[in-house]
Every structure is written in C-alpha cells, then in structure tokens.
Amino acid sequence: MGTEVTTIPVIYHSYKVANVAAMNALTGMRSGEFCIVDDIGAMYRYSGSAWELVISSLTGIVWKDAQPSVLTLTNQVADVAFTDLDLTADTSAIATKAILQAIMHCDSYNSGNLAIYLRKNGTNPTIPVRVIFPSPVAGKDYYSVVIVGLDPDEILEYALVVDDGQMDASLHLLGYIE
Q: What is the DSSP letter of 10?
C-alpha cells in the first residue's frame, strides 16, 4: 500500500435528484461532489462554482432504491490486508463495476492517515482506488463515492490503513454498472 506522496481530504456527498431544476436548487455543495439527474440520466460534478456534465447517458447503470451496507467494520485499530468482498447478493450477474459510498467514522486519531483501499478482485494495480482521510477529527464522519471494478463473480477487495487511531468503516452499494 506504500507511502502516499499527496493526500487530499475526501469529504464528499453524492446527490440524486429528479431533474436539473432540483440539482440547481441544491446548496452547500463542495467542489468534487456528484449529482445524478434521473429524468435525463446524467451525472454532474460540482466544480466549486457550477455543475459540470461528467456522463451524459447513464445507460447500463443500475441505481439501488435502498443502498445496502455491504461492509461494516467497527473499532479498527490495525491495518486490514486486502480481503474479498462478495457483492453477488446485491448486484446482477453481468455487473462489471460497483458504485460505492465509503463512510469512515473517526473514533480517535493521533497521526498519519486513516484510509480505505479498493480494487477489482485478483488485480494488483499500481494505484488502487484510495479513499484517504488525512488528519481526521475524532467524532466526525467522512464520506466519499467511488467506482470499483468487479471480477466476473462480482467480487472486489478492500483494505484498511489505520496509522495511529481508531476508525469505523462501512461501504454502501449505491448502484452498479452492467
């Protein structure tokens, strides 16, 4: 998992709205947050001053009406090596990617990073999907939305890095891509 060269705080929320008017009525967004607009099937990213179109057609994306918790780990004080996470119960047989909301609750923090790493099962990418929470504040929740590849059996892998602190981590399945 190695030493991080650059760390960026990832405290994002994702939004899902009925139409563009509802998206434009949102307030309090931070740069980097995403919004799905149902009636036109598009995904936007907030730049800090305006919504920018990211994907104009979401054909092949299946959004979950209820977002199941697919992983819950509490009171973690040590690293967790890459471990399989099977999503077959919550995806289709042709799912190729999972859209996940990663949530970290910082119980305590002394130094270093608290992080969740994700990757397609059986791969060893140079840079896996990372959700890094540098210098978190005890008692706060941190959120990020990520897309991770799935193997043909709908399995991905996760790992935790707990440099010097304690965290609760969970992953919720927002949807998947077929």
A: -
Give the chain's count of helices (H) and strands (E). Answer: 1, 11
Sequence-distant (6+) residues with CB within 8 A of 167 are 76, 104, 105, 106, 107, 114, 133, 136, 160
Mean per-residue pLDDT, 147-156: 93
Six token digits for residue 80: 């967790």
* Domain topology for 14-55: Seminal Fluid Protein  PDC-109 (Domain B) (2.10.10)
Question: Would you state the torsion angle of the CA atoms of residues 97, 98, 101, 103, taken in this order, to the nearest 10 degrees?
Answer: -100
Contact 94, 76 (CB under 8 A): no
Q: Torsions phi, psi of 12, nearest 5?
A: -110, 155
* pTM for this prediction: 0.69
Domain residue ranges of the chain, discontinuous segments joined by + = 14-55, 61-177
| Nearest to 82, CA basis, from 28, 1, 164 | 1
Q: Which residue's structure tokens are 């607009």?
A: 37
pLDDT band at residue 5 using 50, 70 and 90 as cut-offs: very low
Q: Computed from CA positions of residues 59, 60, 61, 63, in that sequence, does the dihedral angle turn out positive or negative?
A: positive
